[in-house]
User: What shape does this take?
Amino acid sequence: MKHSFIDQYCDLDSFIHRLDPRTKFVASLAFILAVLLTPAGKWWMFVFYFLIVLGLLIFSRLPPTYALKRSLAVIPFVLLIAIFIPFFKEGEIAGSYNIWLWKISVTYSGLFVLANVVAKAWLCILCLILLSSTTKLTELLRGLQQLGVPQAIVLILSFMYRYIFVLMDEAMRMQQAYQSRDIGGSLLRRLKTFGNMIGALFIRSYERGERIYAAMVSRGFDGQVRILNPLRLKGADVFFGVVFGVLLMSPYIILLVQ
Assistant: This one.
């Protein structure tokens, strides 16, 4: 079974794809930091940052619908966390609702905060989609290692990327076996069956991890990953970093001038 939902378009040929993964990672962190530090209510800054991401998406030849669908898929999780802000934030009441025995009020200040949280989260998600879609995870991990990220984190991410597809295949085979033997039954019986499947998948994953670790240790693994061809910064990386940094700082410069 083939899975390509993580870095589906990382093999495209564009200027963004050819940049050093360290350049893209640092630029993504800088973009997220700039978005998070944007003062509340500065909607023109949010539009400016959105235009930057949109330009990079077009420049990298990624399908716009692909980035939009992936970003909208995460928005419900953001709303699940921030949806209660309008109900608990003090201020002028925008509306009141009676739910059974409770009277819940929504304030304008709460809606204002919610809109800012959703806007910032969406821009950050778009930036991460751009990073993951234009960089192979193996190259990104090499870049993180050369940037000094702790070796344990790099190893965990690399094993996650290597074996998440194996576990998905295992789960799909179990699901196929279950569907071929399913004879119906109550909801409780189905939930019990799915619980057993999850438990079996966990045990198989744990045992596979133990076998893999034993095989690595028997071959001399000491916790260090050696890189034969280290990454090297090029002139294009320096040019992109300078231009991108100036674009990120320009809204704050305008605010200082005002």
In short: The chain has two domains: 1-147+228-258, 150-226.
